[in-house]
Design a protein that fits this description.
By secondary structure, this protein is of the alpha+beta class. The chain has helices at 6-20, 27-36, 45-54, 61-73, and strands at 42-43, 78-81, 87-90, 97-102, 107-110, 135-139.
Length: 142
Amino acid sequence: MDHVDPARSERQRLKALLAEHGIQPTAQRVRVAEVLFCRDQHLTAEQVIHALGRNGSHVSKATVYNTLNLFAGKGLLKALSLDRECCRFDSNTRPHHHIHVEGTGELIDVPPGSVEFSRLPPLPAGAEQVSVEVVVRVRRPG
């Protein structure tokens, strides 16, 4: 009976995903993808670096930052600048909104159908609406 290695199968899937988006699937990029695409999540570059270290992978800080920006530029991630201090990378690129908990930095996905607008402002001449994404900022008492 043939044994299928799930980790190898997942790496092959990620290599194909990167290639489909015009990204050369280097070993470092695949390791970053393994951290990012295991589930929908919102990670900072520092959190990715920490997760890679926990997994026993060494990828330089510069490579992680460059890879995150490359993935975002190719549509595999959404870069979310929620404050001046850091950018979070969202592995869920489907349209959705967020609740941002100030103080903890927690981000919670909100399905698009749960936010409604009765009117949007007029768009600049020649502009076309691409999307509307809402960030609801909350603070927990205490």
